[in-house]
Amino acid sequence: MSTFLLMKNYIINGIKLDKYQTKAVFCNKDRYLVIAGAGSGKTLTIVAKVNYLLENGFKRNEILCISFTNETVNSLKNKLLSNNIDVDVKTFHRLALDLLKNKKNISNNYLLDYVIEEFFYSIIYHDNTYKLLEFIDNIEETKETIKSFINQMKGLNYELSFLFKLIYNKSINTDHKILLILILKVYIIYEEELISEDKIDFNDMINLAIKKIDSLKYFPYKYVVIDEYQDTSICKYLLLKKIIDKFNIKLMAVGDDYQSIYSFTGCNLSLFINFKKYFNNSKVIKLKNTYRNPSDITIISKEIVMKNRNQINKRLKSCKYGNKSIAVVYYDDISSINVIIKEIDDILILGRNNKDLENINIDFNNKNIRFLTVHKSKGLEAENVIILNAIDDVLGFPNKIKSNEVLSYLRNYSYEDEERRLFYVALTRTKNRVFIFTKKYKESIFIKELFKDFKWKIKIVDLSKKTLNNC
Hints:
This protein is of the alpha/beta class. Helix content is 39%, strand content 16%. It has 18 helices and 18 strands. Helix 14 links the parallel strand 11 and strand 12. The longest helix has 23 residues.
């Protein structure tokens, strides 16, 4: 009989973990990845792992938890503290700053914006660069592209030589080269501003910390636990890998490739999917139960996201039976949302874009309702979810606004794949039902797929003709 079958379920503060969560907690591999689906108890597993480490010889100041934003750090820290566990929880940037001994002044987020504005307002006229403007269709869009390119380039730890190679590459078309020349000029001015003010930006923190590791004599932690590992970028991986290799640090990484929705910030899903390639002699463990979504949503959401080419196949099982938990709602006027809200409570209203959440008038003051974009909803849940604007349109869901092609020189990812993962995130926030709002003859590709593959499992609510029979 296998050791796995003989294991007793781990218990923390009266909560019994399932056998897969327990396996993740007891795993003694030096480096391993826990693949967690939506609602599979990812945070509980992290808290239990830290508790297990403290029970088995590790001191609280030898354990470091890492997450990716201040918000997720605070959330994880509060979960740990509620279980009487007090260990360090940091972002990668906070870790990098600590390694640099806080000796650097950090530039605010607006310096690059200021440099770009000054460049187009006056600096561009100091030489012949302004002549390139006649080849630019949209100045404001160009400014955004320049900002994104510089931030992502630094986030990937690319040097200035990378830009020169692109500019002198004969296979790159003229329109792209013009934009790359503008990026180069702004980048140089931006770096000069940082140096003159004796400052670094957020990307510099990671890149300088990577270099710092070579001279580092001591690292205080012996075990690192990383949450949301699917959001890792190359530079964050390089920082982590150098620390782990030099000081022989143990690692548990946790995440869900289905919920990787931040490629625009430089995250690289390959680091997650190919974990064993990046960490030799490592192990992968899958959590296989979900405790949030009804069974039909668990099945349908998985099938939708697995239409992507590079996702890990998971066999999540739900402990909650569901039948027609997804409703497609046809509407003419968004005010008809009140017909749905009248019948439910604890509601998360999700928009693909901020604009989706504007001009929604709710007639009920006694309802527990939150309004968020799908990106901001990751990690949250509610009894009921309403997804807005699932129509076939540039600003629908999926969104069809694509970034400038010049950004593809920095990274190669599928915009369509990311929109599909975003839809997965939206569907899996619910503990009960999902209402997806669309319009007749303008249904998005996601609605069409639901009808094609799962029509018998989908409820249709037609509010476009003011008929409430199916509600």
